Amino acid sequence: MENWGFMRLILIMVKFDYRANEHFPVQSTMKMMGVAALLKQSENKNKDFLQEKIYYTKDDLITWAPVTKYHLDKGMTLESLAEAAVTYSDNAAINIIMKKFGGPKFSTDFAHSIGNKSYNVTHYDGYMNSNPKNSDDTATPKDMAISVQKLIIGDTLAKLQKQQLLTWMRNTVTSYKTMRYGVPIGFAVADKTGSGDYGVRNDIGIAWSLACKPIIMSIYTVRNKKDAKSRDDIVAKTTSIIFDEFAHSNQCINDLAK
Questions:
Q1: Which of 47, 77, 193, 225 is the most buried (most CB within 10 A)?
Q2: Residue 147's CB: how many other CB atoms inside 10 A?
Q3: Which of the following is catalytic: 28, 42, 118, 218?
Q4: 68 vs 185, residue with greater confidence
């Protein structure tokens, strides 16, 4: 495999990984962690916690705000901001959430609390580092894969909160040319993408079918030139390679991949 990125997946006792413990810029994949931190807080609050209305200004609408830009006058609930952050990758939405709870440290502290010690987000979205030589705003793909497993399959989140995160990730609109493009027919995907300078194109998530066991994937790519273009096709091809590899040894996936 070319030296452009990393793949990792987990299926029962079988693992494939490449550059598993290197730090990659996380970019918007951090939104999964920030929203999970919010959902975890909601477990110990009353049922109206996520319905708190948050008001913000035009100054909060940086770079990419496809949902928040339409609600300047009326504000948005924490729940609707979380959905916008994950499903539509709204930068302003995740920043507003983080500002409410202490800044980027909010997501980093949560990541560390669930064992993701490599996670190091220090900037707000839209201002995050993409330079692979800088450790700010990075994590290892291995730790991000394990975090997906804990948040979606494990018991880190309560059942209701886990289902909510899974639903928002399943409704993601930013990965039709990345992870979703590479899975065989018959598999559903719940994921979170990220992109930035230095050709960063990332996707983390879970793919499953009614017949086969779930597969967790953590795909991070980065290049050495700041103006390098992000490559959706590399993430899609990596996803396809993963399934092709499993098709050799797993009859369930082999049947669906035909």
A1: 193
A2: 26
A3: 28
A4: 68
